[in-house]
Specification:
66% of the residues lie in helices and 0% in strands. By secondary structure, it is mainly α. Helix 1 packs antiparallel against helix 2 (65-74) and helix 1 packs antiparallel against helix 3 (86-113). It is elongated, with a radius of gyration of 25 Å. The two termini are 22 Å apart.
Length: 144
Amino acid sequence: MATDEEHTRPESVDDLTVEALGNISEALEAVEIARGHLYAFHRLSGTADLTLGEGVARLRCAGHDELADRIETELVGRNVLQGRWTFQVVEEYDDGYYADFKRLERAARGELVAGRRHLYEAEMKEDRRTHGRPGHEREPAAGT
């Protein structure tokens, strides 16, 4: 096991508990990645709408008013989901599922391992590293 207390399991904690918390931590990492993709979706959708507006303006300049009107009224500024622009999707995700996930993951760690993070990974590192080899140190050298 790691020597630093933050990454050392409390004495009374069994392997299955550490594995369960590792699964929950891994799931949270997936949620974090999903959240990043959601923000990318938000940014790309906004960029698409603004660029579409520029295209509509150019259609008008080129004399294609009827087509520009149709695209503008049917698509520019349109909700991406029923009643929602992407900022509303992001806010609902952040305030609901994401906030609850983070709160419950933190609560599980708090109740079971005094809030310590990444115990499963810390133990895996200790098991997999080659002791005494450069690049396989237990922790960073002091001052780095």
